[in-house]
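step=encode ok
step=design start
structure_in=
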């Protein structure tokens, strides 16, 4: 399958991180997702029910990033997002999730850090 649906740079303000200041002050997080799923039927029929609802996808991601659970690691956020996508969208075969911290609390100058994971969903 070669079909990919991408949603780029969803932005959130949340309170994740290992340091107490991160829990108290919060910071920006950015999330990208690439979903692998068959899109030919949606393209031919022009039927939105044959693809992933982008608004619903945003809501799923937002529910993880801005949800009640506080994560220490960006890796854990990415894993939770991927799992939630797999549960919410049965037509998705796999998801690549990127989570960025544009301004991590590190003494140094760089553009931020990014974690990328890919998960394949067993639909058998």
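sequence_out=
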């Amino acid at each position: 399958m070669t079909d990919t649906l991408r949603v780029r740079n969803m932005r959130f303000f949340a309170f994740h991180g290992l340091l107490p200041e991160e829990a108290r002050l919060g910071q920006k997080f950015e999330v990208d997702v690439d979903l692998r799923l068959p899109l030919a039927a949606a393209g031919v029929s022009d039927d939105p029910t044959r693809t992933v609802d982008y608004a619903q996808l945003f809501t799923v991601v937002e529910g993880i990033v801005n949800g009640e659970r506080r994560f220490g690691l960006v890796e854990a956020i990415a894993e939770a997002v991927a799992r939630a996508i797999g549960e919410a969208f049965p037509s998705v075969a796999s998801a690549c999730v990127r989570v960025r911290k544009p301004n991590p609390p590190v003494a140094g100058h760089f553009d931020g850090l990014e974690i990328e994971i890919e998960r394949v969903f067993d639909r058998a």
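step=design ok
step=annotate ok -> The first strand starts at residue 4 and ends at 14.
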